Amino acid sequence: MLSLFDFYTLHQFIADEAQRSLSLPATVYFARLDADGSLHALQLHSTDQDEVPFSELPHQVLKPHLSEDKIIIPLTLPSEEHIALVITDVDPELLKKMSPQWLQKTGEDLLSILELSCLQYKDTNLDLYNSHAAKAFIQCTKFEEPVFFLLINTVFYRRSAIGNLQKLRETADLLQVLTKSPCFTFGYGVFGVALALENREQALRQTRYLQQQLKREGLHKVQVSFAKLGSDHSKYENSLFEKIWQALTVAEQRGPFGFCDVEILQNRPDHPFKLDNPTLSARLAQRWRALSAFSLVLISRQAGTEEPFTGPAEANSIALPQHLGEYIGEDDNLTFVLIPGSDPEEVRLQVDAIRDRYQELYNNGLSLTIGVASWPCLDFTKHDVPGNCLKALLHSSYLGAGTTVFFDHISLNISGDVFFDEGDYRTAIREYRRGLRLHPNDINLMNSLGVALIECGQKRRAAECFQNVLQKDPANHMALINFGHVQQTLGRKDLALQSFELAYQGLETTSFAPQDLLIPLGKLYAECGAHKKAQAVLEQWQACPGSENEYLLYRLLGQSYFENGRHEDAKSACQKALQLFPHDSVSLSTLGLLYVESGEGDSLGLDLCQKALELDNQNPDHWYRLARALLCLMNETEALSAVKRCLQLQRYHMEGRLLLSRIYLHMKKSRLAEQAAVKVLEAATATVSQKHRAQQIITESA
Q: Are 488 and 524 in contact (CB under 8 A)?
């Protein structure tokens, strides 16, 4: 059905289609209509604003009317939003022949035509715009506000084709809920999102947020490229649409959760560790060609109004004594000095003398910050040395103006963080490893390397990094959390729980615990049957700012309250989760079982359980809850069929096996009930509570 998003996303197509359909010698466009009758251009940030109901609009605004030289026809969209059809440049004689009734009917007929016409730009299976709409949106829209376009590649693994389709639909629904913006599908798990964001920093935050949310839902890869849309994107030699796809290829190369900004890809010379001065680079290469060892000094002037020195006369005026080194030149506010040799003590003395020389030369209160890098160093080439000097200067920015920094392992940690923040995880890993070669016992570098390895899917190597940290600092909070995450993904739940608990115990009672600790800890407690502990952890998350918008929190709370016998709280939590994410199949299934077991609506409860399976019939928990609901209604045959389907999907679903035993008891099949219960007793993954219940069933079946 037509919505405000359609009129924003497909505005050029809709305007052209309206012009053709009306066949009027006039100009036609659409606008938002406020309660005072004023018109406003459709913009992305305005499409999700609260609409004023038509019933609350003044009577004169509700009817087609003439405002200045415009005919304004208020229209109600099928989405129950409202918009105004605006017709201008109309012949006054023709205007006299247009009755309000004719105008109203014309507008309503036009909506029907537009709804059918817009179908060519939509994927009706996923209820998203298709690739044709995305291309038209990017290439034809004149953006009057900052808008970023994100291209998202998602990868997940399901056993069947229907499972893949269901997960694809769930991902599409979730993206719409998380972004509340126009979403597009390109097929094969690739999506696009248009977001009203002010700057690149906001785009980076939104990218990481979406990756985190989708990762929580079990996606194995979420790779993102993004670009700012605006009047300046014509500067690219090819279309921006193609550039976004090229950036996605780079993001895929960076790891399972890599991302890439088109702007960074287009402007590589602007990278903070690149010397973008060919003349100066050539001069340096000529000077160091015959040197077997050298050091490069970069002097940054932090204040003042002096212009860079460029001419020979200026070079002579700041010439250095030969024993101090050779002045190479200037680039912006940077002065380059080359020192033959790389002996640390000698270079340090020379750098101190160079500082004194230039401080005297710039006798105007300038603060000089110096970065120094030497060669040979690790596996760096001579041409890498200017970049290493720039890394040292960035390092010095954390220490304050007027400092001197010699390129070291901390410089590499900082430069690695820069690449990590850009989504270039493989380059970040290289920087962290180089830093560890210089300082093998640095805990920060080990932690950083482990996190980057996780982003590249190298979980076992990441675990080794965190283990090394914990050997040196057993209470290191971030290492405990990260080690727990790795062990959880490797299926080692006991080790993961132990690590998370240690991190949780180390928190100050007055501080808010991070979500990346509370979520997995709460889940593991629930899986281990420690539902009271799970509830306490989740309620702590609920107390954190911003948690009221987390559908996952209320989904997990609903399950914990259910297991702890707080059924009313469980219903409220599930309903809250569904308000935030209407297609949350887990909350639908849980709420359905609650309705049945509390006797508040058997038919409604079963409908909700079935609805959950329509959304995702590959989730064994959904089949388990349906079986449990059916058994509650004494429908043993269908309950047996449902629980068997649960166990087909997850052979060691312990709650499913216990339910299977209970169903057999109801059906007077004691031997089968005992056999199913024995399998629970023999299972290494069964909890103490589950084994206790299995023993009770065996006793009852005797």
A: yes
Q: Are residues 546 and 678 in the same domain?
A: yes
Query: Do 653 and 548 fall into the same domain?
Result: yes
One-letter amino acid at 235 equals K
Q: List C-alpha distances in Å: 74 to 18, 82, 203.
A: 15, 7, 35
Q: Is residue 522 part of a domain?
A: no
C-alpha distances in Å from residue 460, one per residue of 252, 323, 422, 451, 465: 21, 51, 24, 12, 9
Q: How far is it, in rounded angstroms, from Cα 481 to Cα 484?
A: 5
260 shares a domain with 136: yes
How confident is the model over 52-103, as pLDDT tens digits? 444 455 555 567 877 777 888 888 888 777 788 888 887 777 777 778 888 8
What is the number of H-type helices and E-type strands within the chain? Answer: 31, 17
> Which of 61, 90, 122 marks a domain boundary?
122
Domain shared by 302 and 403, yes or no? yes
Domain containing residue 456: CATH number: 1.25.40.10
Tally of CB atoms within 10 A around 504: 19
Note the pTM of the prediction, 2 decimals. Answer: 0.82
Among 119, 125, 210, 218, which residue's Cα sits nearest to residue 169? Answer: 125
CA distance 701 to 664: 9
* Amino acid making up residue 118: C
The answer to whether residues 243 and 166 belong to one domain is yes
Residue 137: inside a domain, yes or no? Answer: yes
Cis preceding linkage at 308, omega within 30: no
pLDDT in the model for residue 325: 87
More confident site: 293 or 70: 293
**69, 91, 122: which is the final residue of a domain?**
122
Amino acid in position 501: E
Instruction: Point out which residues pair with 369 in neighbouring strands.
Output: 300
Question: What CA–CA distance (Å, rounded) separates 672 from 666?
Answer: 11
Residue 37 — very low, low, confident or very high, per pLDDT cuts 50/70/90?
low
Same domain, residue pair 582 and 649: yes
> Do 94 and 154 share a domain, yes or no?
no
State the Cα torsion 494-496-498-502 to the nearest 10°. Answer: -170
Say if 523 falls within a structural domain: no
Helix/strand/coil percent split, the chain, to 5:
60, 15, 30
Structural domain for 461, as ranges:
414-485
Using CB atoms within 10 A of its CB, is residue 641 exposed (0-12), middle (13-18) or buried (19+)? middle
CA distance 297 to 291: 16
In the sheet with 27-33, reading across from the earlier edge strand, the strands are 39-40, 27-33, 82-88, 70-76, 65-67
User: At residue 402, what are phi and psi to the nearest 5 degrees?
Assistant: 85, 10
Distance CA 670, CA 668 (A): 6
Closest CA to 260 of 246, 270, 274, 273: 246
Digit-coded pLDDT (tens) for 554-576: 999 999 999 999 999 999 999 99
CB-based contact 80:4 (threshold 8 Å): no
556 & 694 share domain: yes
Least confident segment among 37-46, 282-291, 346-355, 661-670:
37-46
Residue 181: count of CB within 10 angstroms of its CB:
23
Mean pLDDT of 140-147: 78
What CATH number should be reported for the domain holding residue 293? 3.30.70.270
**Residue 352 within any structural domain of the chain:** yes
Q: How many domains does the chain have?
A: 5
**Residue 568 neighbours by CB distance under 10 Å:** 10
Q: Which pair of tokens denotes residue 434?
A: 């180089």
